[in-house]
């Protein structure tokens, strides 16, 4: 399926790079970030060290997990992140740098860019984080919790963890106290809010982090001065001396050894255990990090990274591993299977009146149980290519090179359509091949059709009229009065959008893009058990978005970070009691 230009794809055009790469002043000076005391370059770490917990991937899940495991009651923790620290990249600090960071995303495994571009086999351009903080250091900053039903599982889920909802709530709160803010909503976002209400996405819920039916303002990780807060900031909660964060540390494999049969009580117990990891610094020096007795390796390398590392470590479908020449440690047929990405489709316009830059602040949730597409909006100040003008008839030939583009988009929840991931190279820095098979399930396509119609209704609202421009002479209204119309960038809706399902479905397929909420590959009940342990192994877990078979809420980062905190507390409690303790004992750990 071919992707048509979407705002972000347009930006990938190489000739824009020079303008975007122009040096920007460092927006915030001052004290070093709170995580700095823990961070060293991997070249400065020992070639062999021992830890209680080794967390692979310093992203949305990995940072809160490592901070918690190195907190009260915890142990000695190593966090390994293949990218650099966010403070090295000034563009990451502001919402204005969002588009710039994506435009400069580099697919090369050797690049230092904090976003790594890739294209799925579906032909849809995409990016993944390559920096401490993971997605939270490069994303749009919108923060919203999962809908309550998510914790109880969905139609086709094999299994869901037995979530302790009190601990879930307190873990969300822990993240929120440090990272989230109430945004000031004006300009495009305020207009979208009014238009959503006009299009009957009601009630109006005001500002809330809860997932509730209607229109709401969510939290943001950009503070009042516009500075981004990321999961890396949560590292400051670690006890000094317990946490060591190595950046530019690319984990190449988990070391998985057979368990001594004498020590292996019970034949049903796993026959292999993780004993450590191998990682490589930027000078290609190999390091070994090994577990102390009772320790664990936790993969938090994200939806692409975690299944990739399991495969590279011999945990995966035996026949695939054998054909790649990787010795099989555990035959686990579902590693890299069940890969999902929520389709995003939208309409982008060049508004007739000036508007500010805004990332997502307002969302429309037409139904509480996650069965209707979510509506989100953004506006970007972007340079538009003269080359694009012939393709975009609504862009006036006299338009300036830099324009503001505003987008209203819908995201299909779930989704049900799923694909798979496979190794295209033994290099762990290379993005594995992945196919998401967007819209392979008719239910997803039907959702998109309904969602796109809602986008059209929002655009048709009276509130949106001020963003229409006088149309050219070719489109005079019946009364000879110049009609006002939207200047659309990229694909336009079919004229019969309100009645013709086939035409809207074609639009969905033609314009599908990603909202970067991809998940799966190490799904609960198939690759990991309800405690996120890799089935068939000991002392190895996966804690990140790769374990999800349905994306949580309108946007996932809240729940991914919550999960890191939650699992950190669970693991510490297990460490102390070697049994699951009740929630009243967690409060002691949370002081
Ligand atoms: C452009 C963009 C915009 C987004 N906007 C939003 C938004 O506004 N709101 C929202 O809720 N969500 C948003 N998301 C999604 C959200 O950021 C992700 O769902 C979330 O970050 C996933 O968390 P994770 O821990 O699973 O993986 P990540 O956060 O991606 O973390 C994985 C980390 O592991 C590291 N890693 C991978 N392999 C290795 C290896 N071999 N060795 C060492 N380290 C490794 C990576 O470099 C990365 O830092 C956005 C994502 C993107 C990319
Ligand atoms: C968790 O928080 C939600 C939303 O605030 C609330 O509805 C629910 O009752 C809470 N659950 C528990 C167990 O505290
Ligand atoms: C979800 O809610 C809608 C109404 O808001 C209802 O029509 C639908 O049946 C619900 N679906 C499920 C799976 O509960
Ligand atoms: C609906 O749209 C499709 C695809 O554009 C077109 O082939 C078909 O004729 C349209 N149907 C009607 C009833 O106009
Ligand atoms: C829960 O933990 C508290 C404190 O550790 C203890 O007093 C209580 O008996 C425990 N309750 C159960 C049901 O185990």
Automatic annotation (TrEMBL):
Entry keywords, A to Z: Disulfide bond, FAD, Flavoprotein, Signal
UniProt xrefs under PROSITE patterns: GMC_OXRED_1, GMC_OXRED_2
Protein's UniProt keywords contain Transferase: no
InterPro entries to which the protein is assigned, alphabetical: FAD/NAD-bd_sf, GMC_Oxidoreductase-Related, GMC_OxRdtase, GMC_OxRdtase_N, GMC_OxRtase_C
Residues given in the record as FAD binding sites: 131, 251, 516-517, 545, 556-557
Family designation: Belongs to the GMC oxidoreductase family.
Annotated protein name in UniProt: Glucose-methanol-choline oxidoreductase N-terminal domain-containing protein
